[in-house]
Fold Two-component system activity regulator YycH.
Amino acid sequence: MNQVTDKIVKVSLISMILLSLFLSWKIWTKPANRSLAEKDKDNTSELVQTKKMTDVYVPTKLFYHKDKENLLYSNKETTIVNVHDKLRQFEFQSNKELDEKGTREAMYTTNSFNLFFPKEMPISVYADIYSLKLNLPGNLEDFNFNRIIYSFETEKLTFANDSFKKSISFEVKGDSKRIQELVSNEKKNNYYDVALEPENVSGIYYMKDDVKLKTYSYIVATQSFTTFSKAFFNQSNDLYSNESSNVNLSNGEGESLTIQSDTGEVNYFGKLKTADKKQKNALYFDTFQYVENIGNAMGTLRYFDAKDGDVTYRNYIEGFPVFGKNMKGRLEVVVQNKNVFVRTNQEMIQMPIPSDETITLVSTEKLMSELINIGVELTHVEDVQIGYEWQTNSETKQAVDLVPTWYINYDGIWFSHADLVSKVEKGGL
């Protein structure tokens, strides 16, 4: 009996060794340039929940003009989303173009509030995204706005931008009582005291006091190349890979995808996907196709910036934008003619790790005074806001630290407070 058992064990061991040698031979003799079609088929199919434009093109700040002496700011996402949802359910009636005087009167009226978008967009795009019937005259369809102003006194809703040169005011009808309940709940909305003075840089609200904010650590997930190939490629069933330390994918249609092994930066180039239907100001809809197909892999993503065929979408946490090196925390889509370039990073924040650590940031007035003292020309400052800086976690690569800091948009480029100071000191601006 023992002899039979020994023979079975020996045969099993020999079989396992032969199988191991065969598999090793298959690995070492595979071609360096090979099709990935079969590999894609082997991957278990994932149900990708696509993003909606109504989840991404949303306001990110709420300013409540309680009275002449009290202007309050909140970035509480649930309140902002709920208020915006109720606003867009209004019945939009007659509209009127306001001049600079009328716009400033609407802006400074008491018992009102402002919803802020990170960047301007054409009002016709906003109407298309939310299926609103605004009945705009042709000369106003391309009006760019980033502020929605609503007055509880006049029950008028106004679309305005940072220039205050003109705006569009609507007579509206809807549930303003419920909106007022949401906006006036000071305890729930965690308001900060702010000031809006004519001399403020770029018409922004200034934080009156120093502000204490939590730091966060987040678990990060490194997305596989298939996440991006399926989201970006027009033809992802016949891809080829060139063996190297980086990921290099291409197909016969001229599309290509690279992922840098050292930084995780993702770069895609290809032909612009054809939208289901052609719209005016198509840039916003064309670029969103690449956000839509990423689904929830990138977490909370918001429309953040647009200029010269380039649209940027950025991660937000606790109502603040995330800034990181090597495209971390953002997705950028550039359209040139019928070509498209997409940039992002395969490292994406997933789950927060509880933390009680806080950082205190100086008030906006103190920040501006410091910038003036080191020689920064405030005429070049286009925006200032608090954001979270993506930093390497010293203990593990599976997590990142997100640290609150001031960010300054100088001549169209975002700098952290520390980076801007460093550049000025080195004479780099």
The chain has three domains: 57-195, 220-350, 355-425.
